[in-house]
Amino acid sequence: VTLRAAAGTYLTSGDTATLAGQAEFLYDADDSKSRLSADTCFVILAAGEPAAIDWPGAVEGRLEDAEQTSWLQARAGHGDLAEGRLVRLALRQQVEVTHRGTGARLSRFTAASMELEYGDDGVLRRVHAEGDALVRTRLPEDDEGGGASFNEVSGERLEVDLDGGNVIAVRVLEEIEGRFVPDGEESEDSAIT
Fold first, then answer.
1. For the purposes of burial, counting CB atoms within 10 Å of the CB of 105, is it exposed (0-12), middle (13-18) or buried (19 or more)?
2. What is the structure's pLDDT at 192?
3. Least confident range of 59-68, 112-121, 173-182
4. Cα-flanking dihedrals φ and ψ of residue 65, to 5°?
5. Distance set, CA 156 to CA 111, 112, 135, 153 (Å)
6. What is the pTM of this model?
């Protein structure tokens, strides 16, 4: 883990380091690369090692592993760490995550708040989205020449499962609305409400 900023302070009484001025959290190991940046962040230390990070203001960045890449932005956030690696990332206010899995699948998640859960291998496994949540996924053309398709699901609360870098399930926990649009078919008839 590398933490850097234009300025910083370390308060020994509280085991918290404050980084200000384009503060960055960088991780590069085990086929994972993360870069999260904000104007200010608070690093919570346990036995002198980073255990969590709070971003009180806007945070943005890129998280990449062997199976997927995610770009994100939010107005605030909190990350829990294990051995310097993110295991849980909670984002708040105007959250947007763009996710690219294997095989050119592209998804976009938006919500008022979002929690991203990572497995022991550092790979994103689940996304919980709450507050006017929306998931849009573009599936590329298939090997048999079938065109690309587009899926959209929205609701008050969504739970998204990922495997191999791809969205494999979206569960709507409240107020469902969605549509599936096969290639070349722009119809309101495909909407689910």
1. middle
2. 45
3. 173-182
4. -140, -175
5. 9, 10, 11, 11
6. 0.81
